[in-house]
Structures are given as structure tokens and as C-alpha cells.
Amino acid sequence: MSDDAFEGSVRKFLKQVGVTGHQELERAARASNTAGAPAARKARAVITLEGTDLQHVVEAEIVLPDPHG
Q1: What's the burial of 16, exposed, middle or buried (CB within 10 Å: 0-12/13-18/19+)?
Q2: Is the pLDDT of residue 3 over 70?
Q3: Cβ(55)–Cβ(48) under 8 Å?
Q4: 4-57 confidence digits (pLDDT tens)
Q5: For labelling alongside 18, which of 27, 29, 34, 44 has CA 20 to 30 A away?
Q6: Residue 69 has pLDDT above 70, yes or no
């Protein structure tokens, strides 16, 4: 595989993770955001690569929108 094809496939994967991850985080956060709920939730993403020992973990806090608008 050429370097260009490799780079392109990695970028395509990361774009898919970013777009679908963003959509799912928003959906889940809004669905669980009710009065009295915590103002933030912990999020975690784990990236693995089959056939390797890669396990890249990214964690952050997601601040939820005001449930009253």
C-alpha cells in the first residue's frame, strides 16, 4: 500500500469516528440531560488496531446543555 493510500485510509477512519462520535455523544447527552442531572459527564474513546497492541484511550468531560433551554 502506498503512503498516500495509507494516509487516506487513516484520515477516512478518523473522520468517520469524529462525525459519528459527535452525533452519538450529542444524542446521548441530550437524552440523559434532565433537571437534577450532573452538569457534565465523562466520555471515553478507545481506539484499537487489530493485530497490534494499540489501545489508545482519550477521556474528557462533556459539559451538558442547560435542560431548560
Answers
A1: exposed
A2: yes
A3: yes
A4: 999 999 999 999 999 999 999 999 988 888 777 788 899 999 999 999 999 999
A5: 34
A6: no
Q: Helix or strand or coil: residue 51? A: coil
Q: How many residues does the chain have?
A: 69
Looking up cell 477521556, which residue turns up? 59
Q: What is the pLDDT of residue 35?
A: 72
- 19: cell is 462525525
Per DSSP (E only), the strands in the chain are 40-48, 55-63
How many angstroms separate the CA atoms of 16 and 22, rounded? 10
What is the model's pLDDT at position 59?
Answer: 98
65 in Cβ contact with 30 (< 8 Å): yes
67 φ, ψ (degrees, to nearest 5): -65, -10
